[in-house]
Design goal:
Belongs to the binding-protein-dependent transport system permease family. CysTW subfamily. The chain is an alpha+beta fold. It has 16 helices and 13 strands.
């Protein structure tokens, strides 16, 4: 017992246990987000359910819950199990989900002929494929066999996807640039140039109309399991699969394709479907701009406070103020950015440089530039404190040795002090990046948009449009989870987007640890 008291005691075990618990909590969080989010993209089997009254429906089983009504509890009855199915077919049934009492289910089947269609409107369709039509005439029916009809559908879908890509290319690379040039008037000084641009724009729109007519040429005849039929334009079908007829490897391939589509496409259906590519791009671009702004100012401020300024009560007050700024709620920075940066500086820029565009604001409204500056102000105290702590840990004799060898104060700072403090600077910057990547409250005021499918980078000068609205992963998560009308549909997307945020922050922190270790080993001297 005396040896326990004189020694380290149980503190090392307590510290190790705390670290282990923290790691387990992080692993459990990532596992929960991964299981709930990534399972959404797996092509689950479609069940053909027969109820006790003889009615049937098809759907994918989502989950089951046990409920006990108040009357049952008073009578001592047991719990009742209810099963939630994703039935789709909202254009036929007016609903997307269906709760069923497990006691009413008499039979479950998984026939191979059931298909699932992902559509631009009305969500998924679950049922059977009856026929393929072209220009209103039936080309192939179910009499030819389900496999032949399915192969023909896949070929038509490939052609439709090529047409959609062609339409988007024409919109982005022909119509949009010509429309911007006509609106700006930069190259349309004469009537002949204006007429030429107008003719080119008209021709590009005519080509898009031809593609649109080609997309509307094909259609499908679909049938629900209860016999109701539906005519579906093939141009609105995004994907089709037969989950009950797919092998595990085919399901894994389909899962990978759907996951890639989630990461590489834009949102649709009021953010209730589609992908998150604009949000990923906007988040990364905003963080990069914020880092380019906050790093020099934060490092220079820390160098001045620790290396240049004469230490005294005033500098101590400045340090206290900087540390207090680190605890200010982020929404306060958002209000500051909206009032000072957007309305103040942005409004003045519009008056000076873009007066011909008023009252439509150019920089006097939220955008990428003001969001980056606001988050730079938010994370500036973090960079200053981390850099100053790194500078303070450098031994004094390192500076004195350099000065004794004839180096100037600037040369000492540049070649001795700053390289040794580089790990601390990098730590501060990465911590700032990790915090900025997850902030939402300021962005709601200074530039993040609920839906901005076009990224703020294109091939037109100046290539990077700082006045553009952009999407952010955190704000997109808020919109999907709390502003959507279908909670059940949004829930797996919320888990998937949250997993992306956690992974981004984890990668940034791991990168900081690796680079800090590398720089510390490079500039390590006899004193650590």
């Amino acid at each position: 017992m005396k040896r326990w008291r004189r020694g380290e005691g149980g503190w090392p075990w307590l510290a190790a246990g705390s670290v282990a618990v923290s790691l387990l909590m992080v692993a459990a969080l990532v596992a929960l987000l991964g299981a709930r989010g990534l399972a959404h993209f797996w092509p689950a089997d479609v069940e053909l359910v027969t109820l006790s009254d003889g009615s049937r429906f098809a759907g994918q089983r989502v989950r089951h819950v046990e409920t006990r009504a108040e009357t049952q509890a008073k009578a001592g009855g047991g719990a009742r199990t209810q099963v939630l199915y994703l039935t789709g077919n909202r254009d036929l049934d007016g609903q997307y989900w269906r709760w069923v009492d497990a006691e009413r289910i008499t039979k479950r089947e998984t026939p191979a002929g059931l298909i699932v269609l992902e559509r631009q409107r009305w969500g998924e369709f679950i049922g059977r494929l009856v026929a393929l039509r072209e220009d209103g005439a039936t080309q192939l029916t179910r009499d030819a066999g389900d496999d032949a009809l399915w192969q023909a559908l896949q070929a038509r879908l490939a052609r439709v996807e090529a047409l959609r890509e062609r339409r988007e290319w024409l919109r982005e690379n022909r119509v949009a640039p010509l429309a911007r040039r006509l609106a700006a008037g930069g190259e349309a000084d004469s009537q002949s140039q204006h007429a030429e641009l107008t003719a080119q724009l008209k021709a590009a729109r005519a080509r898009i109309a031809d593609v649109q007519r080609a997309l509307a040429r094909d259609s499908l005849v679909l049938e629900s399991v209860d016999g109701r039929r539906l005519a579906q334009p093939l141009g609105e079908v995004l994907a089709a699969w037969r989950p009950n007829a797919m092998s595990p490897f085919a399901k894994l391939a389909s899962w990978g394709q759907r996951l890639w589509a989630f990461l590489s496409e834009g949102p649709r259906a009021a953010n209730g479907a589609g992908g998150v590519w604009p949000a990923i791009f906007g988040t990364v671009l905003m963080v990069l701009l914020m880092s380019l702004i906050v790093t020099p100012f934060g490092v220079l401020a820390a160098v001045y406070l620790n290396e240049v300024a004469r230490q005294g009560p005033l500098i101590s007050l400045v340090r206290i103020a900087v540390r207090n700024l680190a605890g200010v709620p982020s929404i306060v920075y958002g209000v500051f950015g909206l009032g000072v940066l957007v309305y103040g500086i942005g409004g003045s820029l519009d008056q000076w440089l873009f007066s011909e565009a008023l009252p439509s604001p150019t920089f006097g409204t939220g955008g990428l530039l003001w969001a980056s500056l606001t988050l730079a102000l938010l994370t500036l105290p973090v960079v200053i404190v981390a850099t100053e702590e790194g500078l303070a840990r450098i031994p004094v004799h390192q500076r004195e040795g350099a000065l004794a060898l004839g180096a100037t104060r600037y040369e000492t700072l540049r070649h001795v002090v700053l390289p040794m403090a580089m790990p601390a600077m990098l730590t501060g910057v990465i911590l700032a990046v990790a915090r900025a990547a997850g902030e939402v409250a300021p962005l709601m005021l200074v530039g993040a948009a609920k839906l901005a499918p076009q990224v703020p980078v294109d091939g037109e000068f100046p290539f990077l449009h700082l006045d553009s609205k952009f999407m952010h992963l955190g704000y997109h998560l808020y919109n999907v989870g709390f502003l959507g009308g279908d909670v059940e549909r949004a829930m797996p997307l919320v888990y998937a987007i949250a997993l992306l945020l956690v992974l981004v922050i984890a990668v940034l922190n791991l990168t900081a640890i690796f680079l800090r270790h590398h720089l510390r080993a490079r500039h390590r001297g006899p004193y650590r």
